[in-house]
Design a protein that fits this description.
By secondary structure, the chain is an alpha+beta fold. About 30% of the residues lie in helices and about 30% in strands. The structure holds one RNA strand of 77 nucleotides.
Length: about 575
RNA sequence: CGGAGCGUAGCGCAGCCUGGUAGCGCGCUUGGUUUGGGACCAAGAUGUCGGAGGUUCGAAUCCUCUCGCUCCGACCA
C-alpha cells in the first residue's frame, strides 16, 4: 500500500474526548473515528488490525474443532421472551419495532438464536458434541460507554456456544476452549492471565476470564508467584493458617475515643495496629436484610463473595439512618456487641483475639474484645478482598501478586439453563430426551486490539506486536524527488510485496520529520528508511519500533533480513 | 439512572465573570525558499459560538429549557 494513496489521517494533538492511552492513540493513529457515544467507525488502518485479530481467533477456534456461522444482529422478540431475557435484560437490550410493529432487539449476545438453531436441527446425541461460533457485531446499550473500543455499545465479538449430551462432555468442550483461548492470546503476543472468575448473572458452574495485564485495567486480579493459580479479586479464594487457636487474655473494656471514626484514627489514638482492630460494617442486602459484617481493620470487604455467601443479588453499605437504627450510634462506632442483627465475620477474624471494636455509642470503642465470649458470630467465611502477599490457596507455598487487567475473553460453562428454558433436547442412547449441556465463550475483538495498545506503547505512539500490526513493514522514502532514492524504495517495496510481506510505502511528499513522527505514532513493527545519505553507501536503515534499535543494512540483504524478522514476529508455539 | 464537567473553524484552545466588529496555535489552499526527527516567508479560505426560547437598543457572553459529549458509581467482551 502506498501512503500517498491511503487514508491514514493522523492527529498531532490528542482529542479531548479520549481519556485512556489506547483510545487516544487509536484516534491519533487514524484507526478509528467516533460516530456516536460508544459507536465507532473503523478506518482502514484500524480495520487491518481488527481483521488480524479475527483471523487468529478463527484459526484457533477452527483448530479446536469449532465451526463458524453467522447469526443476525436483529433478533425477534419471541426468542428472547422464551428464554425470559426480554424482561430480564433491561435497558441494555436495544429494542425496536419493524414496519409491522413486531418487536425486535439488537443482539447483545446470541444464546437464544443459537439454541433455537440447535433444537431445530439436532435431534440425536450422535450429532454431538457441537461448538459453533461467529464473529459478529453486538449491540449493548451500555449505561456508560467509555474508553473508545474498550467499552463500546456497538462492538465486534467472537462468541461461541458448545453443546454436549452430558456434563462430562461439556467439561471437555470447556477445556478445549480454555486451551484455544490460551493459544489465541499467546499468538497475539500479549501478556495476560487466565483467571478464575465469578460466573455472575449468566450463571453456570465455572468460568475463566482472560485478562490482558495493563495499568489502566478495570479489574483487579491476583496470581500466585509459584503456581498457576490466578483469579479475579472478586473471586480469589483465601486460606488462613489457623494452627494456633487464639486465646483471650484481656477483659473487655470501654474506652473513650472522642471523634475517632476511621480505622486510622482509632489505631493512632489507641496506639495499636489496624490489624488489632475489627471493623464492623453494616450492610443491606437485596433481600432487605440488614446485617453486620466483621473484618480485620486493614481489610476490604468483597461484596461479591458476601452476596454469594448469603445467596442474594447484591449487598450495599447501609445508609446512615440504618446504621443509626441498627447500632444506636452514628457510623464510625459500630461494633458487634449487643447487636440484634445477624453478624457475619471474615474467616480471618476467627484467628484474632483481644481486638478493638466499636462501642455502638458516640465516641466509644471497646478493647480486649473476643468473639464467642463477648459476642456471637453466626458465620465465619471468606468474604474479604484478596491483596498482594496473601498466601496461595492452591499450592499454599506461593504468595499473591496483584495486577490490573483488561478482560478480553470470558468462558462459561452454562449447563442446561437455556436448553431447559427453550426446550432444546436430544435423544440419548436410551431414547430419552435430554436437555443439552451448554457452554459459551466470548472474546472482545476490538477490546483486545485496544488492550494490546494499552500494553504496548511509548511516549511516541503505538508499538503493536507483529501478529496484530496493520502492516509488518514500513518503507520510509525520504526524498521522493530524488530518482535514485525513489527507485531504490520502489524496488524494495515491490520485492516485499512479491514475498507477501505487508508493507506500507511512505511515498508522501512530506519532510522527513513528519514521516518519522507518523511512523512512530502508527507503530508498524519494522521501519526501513531509504534516504540519499545511506544509499550512497549502498545501505538502508532498519529500525525496530519496539526496541528502537537501528542498524544499517545493505540494499542486497535487507529483504532477507526483513523476511526473517517478520517470520520471527509471527512465530508462536502451541500449548499442548 | 444519580453526581461532576464541557459544547466557539478539521484538531487543541482563548474570549463569557464585567453584553458592543469572533480570536490564537496546529492543520488546510496557493506561490516561493527548504528537505534525516512535526521547517520558513508571503498571500488566502474556513464559524448558523450545540439547538430553541427569553431578557436587552444589542447576546458566544445573562436567564430558562433542550440535545450531545466526557468523567466518577452499578454493568460487561
Amino acid at each position: 500500500m502506498r501512503y500517498s494513496q491511503y487514508l491514514l489521517p493522523t492527529l498531532k494533538e490528542t482529542p479531548a474526548e479520549a481519556e485512556v492511552i489506547s483510545h487516544q492513540l487509536m484516534l491519533r493513529a487514524g484507526m478509528i473515528r467516533k460516530v456516536a457515544a460508544g459507536i465507532y467507525s473503523y478506518l482502514p488502518f484500524g480495520l487491518r488490525s481488527l481483521r488480524k485479530m479475527e483471523q487468529i481467533i478463527r484459526e484457533e477456534m477452527n483448530r479446536a474443532g469449532a465451526i463458524e456461522c453467522l447469526m443476525p444482529m436483529a433478533n425477534p422478540a419471541e426468542l428472547w421472551q422464551e428464554s425470559g431475557r426480554w424482561e430480564k435484560y433491561g435497558k441494555e437490550l436495544l429494542r425496536f419495532k419493524d414496519r409491522k410493529s413486531a418487536d425486535f432487539c439488537m443482539g447483545p449476545t446470541h444464546e437464544e438464536v443459537i439454541t433455537d438453531i440447535i433444537r431445530n436441527t439436532v435431534n440425536s446425541y450422535k450429532q454431538l458434541p457441537l461448538n459453533l461460533y461467529q464473529i459478529q457485531t453486538k449491540f449493548r446499550d451500555e449505561i456508560r460507554p467509555r474508553f473508545g473500543l474498550m467499552r463500546g455499545r456497538e462492538f465486534i465479538m467472537k462468541d461461541a456456544y458448545s453443546f454436549d449430551l452430558e456434563d462430562s462432555g461439556a467439561d471437555t468442550s470447556y477445556q478445549k476452549m480454555y486451551q484455544a483461548y490460551r493459544n489465541i492470546f499467546n499468538r497475539c503476543g500479549l501478556k495476560y492471565r487466565s483467571v478464575e472468575a465469578d460466573s455472575g448473572a449468566i450463571g453456570g458452574n465455572f468460568s475463566h476470564e482472560f485478562m490482558v495485564l495493563a495499568e489502566s485495567g478495570e479489574d483487579g486480579i491476583v496470581s500466585c508467584d509459584s503456581c498457576e493459580y490466578a483469579a479475579n479479586v472478586e473471586k480469589a479464594e483465601l486460606i488462613y493458617a489457623d494452627s494456633v487457636p487464639p486465646v483471650a487474655t484481656q477483659e473487655v473494656q470501654k474506652v473513650d475515643t472522642p471523634g475517632q471514626k476511621t480505622i486510622e484514627d482509632v489505631a493512632r489514638f489507641l496506639q495499636v495496629n489496624p490489624q488489632q482492630i475489627v471493623k464492623t460494617l453494616i450492610v443491606q442486602t437485596s433481600n432487605d436484610e440488614v446485617l453486620a459484617v466483621l473484618l480485620r481493620g486493614d481489610r476490604e470487604l468483597n461484596p461479591i463473595k458476601l452476596a454469594n455467601l448469603l445467596g442474594v443479588d447484591w449487598v450495599l453499605m447501609a445508609e446512615e439512618e440504618v446504621v443509626q437504627e441498627a447500632t444506636g450510634a452514628p457510623t464510625g462506632f459500630a461494633g458487634p456487641i449487643g447487636l440484634s442483627i445477624r453478624v457475619v465475620a471474615d474467616a480471618e477474624v476467627k484467628t484474632m483475639a483481644d481486638f478493638v471494636i466499636g462501642g455502638n455509642a458516640v465516641d466509644v470503642h471497646v478493647v480486649g474484645a473476643n468473639h464467642g465470649r463477648d459476642f456471637e458470630v453466626s458465620q465465619f467465611a471468606d468474604i474479604r478482598q484478596a491483596v498482594a502477599g496473601d498466601p496461595c490457596p492452591r499450592c499454599k507455598e506461593g504468595k499473591f501478586e496483584s495486577w490490573r487487567g483488561i478482560e478480553v475473553g470470558h468462558i462459561f460453562k452454562l449447563g442446561i439453563r437455556y436448553s431447559e428454558a427453550m426446550n432444546a433436547t436430544v435423544l440419548d442412547a436410551q431414547g430419552q430426551a435430554q436437555p443439552l449441556v451448554m457452554g459459551c465463550y466470548g472474546i472482545g475483538v476490538g477490546r483486545t486490539v485496544a488492550a494490546a495498545i494499552e500494553q504496548n506503547h511509548d511516549e511516541n505512539g503505538i508499538i503493536l506486536p507483529m501478529p496484530l500490526a496493520p502492516f509488518q513493514v514500513l518503507v520510509t522514502l525520504l526524498n521522493p524527488k530524488d530518482d535514485q532514492v525513489r527507485e531504490a524504495a520502489e524496488k524494495l517495496y515491490q520485492q516485499l510485496l512479491d514475498l507477501n510481506i505487508e508493507v506500507l510505502l511512505d511515498d508522501r511528499d512530506e519532510r522527513p520529520g513528519i514521516k518519522f513522527k507518523d511512523a512512530d505514532l502508527i507503530g508498524i513493527p519494522l521501519r526501513v528508511t531509504v534516504g540519499a545519505r545511506s544509499l550512497k553507501e549502498g545501505n538502508v536503515e532498519l529500525k525496530v519500533r519496539e526496541s528502537g534499535a537501528v542498524t544499517m543494512v545493505s540494499v542486497d540483504e535487507i529483504v532477507v533480513q526483513l523476511q526473517q524478522l517478520v517470520a520471527q514476529g509471527l512465530a508462536f508455539t502451541l500449548e499442548k
